[in-house]
Amino acid sequence: MEKDRPVPPSPSDIQLRVDSKRGATNVIHPVGGVTPPLPSSGVAGPLVYTEGKHFQKWFPWLIPSFVIATVVMFIFTMYVNNCPKNSATCIARFLGRLSFQPFKENPLLGPSSDTLQKLGALDVGKVVHEHQGWRLLTCLWLHAGLFHLLANMLSLPVIGIRLEQEFGFVKIGFLYIISGFGGSLLSALFIQTNISVGASGALFGLLGGMLSELITNWTMYSSKVAAFITLVVIIVINLAMGVLPHVDNFAHIGGFLSGFLLGFVVLIRPQFEWFSQKYASPGYCSTTVKSKFKTYQCVLWIISLILLIVGFTSGIILLLRGVDANDLCSWCRYLSCIPTSRWSCKTEPTYCLTTLAGNQLNITCSNNGSSEVYILPNPSSSEIQELCNDLCR
C-alpha cells in the first residue's frame, strides 16, 4: 500500500522562527492564523525558516542616545546662561550657574531667550538674512525650560524605542531628523516674530511614521482597526492641545506631515507570502509570489515621495525668499492658536527704548508707550530685557 505523500503546509500553518543573536526567539505568523507550538528536537513541526532582516529585532540605542544628548545640551545651555551673573533675581539660585531665569521672564524654568538664540534657536530673520539655515536643525536640541524638556524627553522613549526595535536606528534616526526639519520649516514660514526651540516636531514625526507604517503594512497586523483608532485619537488630542497660546503647533503639524509621508517610504515591509517564499528551507514549495510589495504599498510609496520632494522644495524656496505664509493663508494662524476670552494669541515680541545716564536707566515700551525710570548700577542686557517685559505687560 502506497504511503501518503507529505502535504505542503497551508499559509495558516506556516511559522517563522527568528533566532536572534541576543538569545531571544520571536515567532511571526500570518494575520488570522493560530500560532502553533515551537517544534522540539526530533519532533515534526511546522515549516521553519531562516532569519530574515525585515523581521529581526534591533537593539535600541539611538533613541536613548538622543535623550541623553538633549539633556546634556540643556545643562550646557543653563551653564552658558549663567543667571546669577546676568539677572538680579534667579530661581533655585543654589544651583549657581545652572539656576533658572525669573518666572516673569521664563515660566518654564529655563534660560533667557538671548541664550537660546546664541546657541542656535530658530530665528527666521537670521535664517533668511544671515543665511543661518543650520538653525532649522540645531533648534531641535534646545529646550525653553525644564518643564519643556521633561515633556519631550519622557515621551521620546515611549514612542521611539518600539520603532527603533522594529526598523533599526538608520531608518528611525532619519525619520526623526527629517521630521524635525519639516516641523522647523513650517514653523519658520508661519511664525516669524519669535524664536522657536524643541524636539516636538520630531516627536510628532515619529507619531506620523507609526500611523503610516500601520497603514502601509495593514495586512500584517491583527487588531489593526483598534490600533488605528487608538493612534488617531492620540494624535488628534496632541494636535488639539497645540491651539493653546505659546505652543508652536506649526512645528507639530509640519513634523507630523513629514513623518507621516516619510513612513510610507522608509517603513514599508514586504508581504508575508513573498517573505515566506524567500526564506523557506530547501525542499518545500509554496505558491509563487513575484511581487515583494503589494500594489497599494507601491502607490503610497510613489505618492508620498513626490509630496515630500515638492513640499520640502517649495517650503525652502518660500523661506529663503522671505515669504510670510500668513499672507498666503489668512486663516492658518488658527491652527496654532485660537483666541478666546481667557487668552490672547498675540505673540509680538516686546521692544523698548533705553537711555542710561550714570545709574539712572530710562525705559520706554515701544508696544504700549509706557515709560519708567530705574536706578541700576551697570545693568546687564538680561536685566534690561526683564524690566522691558514687565513694563510692556
Automatic annotation (TrEMBL):
It holds the Pfam family Rhomboid. The keyword Transmembrane helix applies. It is found in: Membrane. Gene3D superfamilies: Rhomboid-like (1.20.1540.10). It is an enzyme of class 3 (hydrolase). Keywords: Hydrolase, Membrane, Protease, Serine protease, Transmembrane, Transmembrane helix. GO terms for cellular component: Golgi apparatus; membrane. Its EC number is 3.4.21.105. It catalyses: Cleaves type-1 transmembrane domains using a catalytic dyad composed of serine and histidine that are contributed by different transmembrane domains. InterPro entries: Peptidase_S54_rhomboid-like (IPR002610), Peptidase_S54_rhomboid_dom (IPR022764), Rhomboid-like_sf (IPR035952). The keyword RNA-binding does not apply. GO terms for molecular function: serine-type endopeptidase activity. Its main location: membrane. The chain crosses the membrane at residues 58-79, 140-161, 173-191, 197-218, 225-244, 250-268, 298-320. One of its GO terms (biological process) is proteolysis. It is a multi-pass membrane protein. Residues 131-267 form the Peptidase S54 rhomboid domain. Belongs to the peptidase S54 family. Serine protease involved in intramembrane proteolysis. This is RHOMBOID-like protein. It comes from Turnera subulata. The lineage of its organism: Eukaryota, Viridiplantae, Streptophyta, Embryophyta, Tracheophyta.
